Amino acid sequence: MSMPLSHKLPRIFAALLLLAGFAAGTAQAAENPAVALLHDMHKAVKITEGKGSKTLYVFFDPNCPFCHKLFEELRPYVKQNEVTIHWIPVGILTSTSPGKAAAILQAKDRLKAFYQSEHDWNFGDTPGGGITPLKNPSPATRRALETNNGLLADHGLNGVPVTLFATTDGSAFYFEGTPPADKLAEIMQYVK
């Protein structure tokens, strides 16, 4: 027994809307590389800091001075519980970067290791992050670091810091580098 057309139309319409939404999402990702990167954040191995309603994802290299400056400039937002930051360590800048990123990723308390690297900036045995590079990371840590490095490379990004977020208008945006504090304050108004 066949269903009357009047009963089929709502299902056909719903299917078309679903396909149109999928196509629009795919087109938006193609037009806006930040959408595609944001979509891939579930793959990243992150260190979460803060409990604010706004969310940032920040790719950083432990030896990157601009990443360290961004860390410092974000302190007021963390202290005021305005933001949750997912820090994503990569090892791309110097010969000690992979070992330092691995030391953070393999630590029992990643946030504590991250803080050590940032708070002891330029006080360690090597310039940059103040954490001792890990010489023999575990296979899981190596995979995590490869995943994080790969996310940058797969999206055509080769510098750090890269800060990514969903916007209040429902889109996505990222910027490279560290903006001046006043510009960062403007940007934070658009972070969802």
TrEMBL record:
GO terms for molecular function: electron transfer activity; heme binding; metal ion binding. The keyword Cytoplasm does not apply. GO terms for cellular component: periplasmic space. Pfam families: Thioredoxin_2 (PF13098). Residues 47-192 form the Cytochrome c domain. It is found in: Periplasm. Transmembrane segments: none annotated. The keyword Transmembrane helix does not apply. InterPro entries: Cyt_c-like_dom, DiS-bond_Isoase_DsbC/G, Thiol:disulfide_interchange, Thioredoxin-like_fold, Thioredoxin-like_sf. Gene3D superfamilies: Glutaredoxin (3.40.30.10). Required for disulfide bond formation in some periplasmic proteins. Acts by transferring its disulfide bond to other proteins and is reduced in the process. Belongs to the thioredoxin family. DsbC subfamily. This is Thiol:disulfide interchange protein. It comes from Acidihalobacter prosperus. The lineage of its organism: Bacteria, Pseudomonadati, Pseudomonadota, Gammaproteobacteria, Chromatiales.
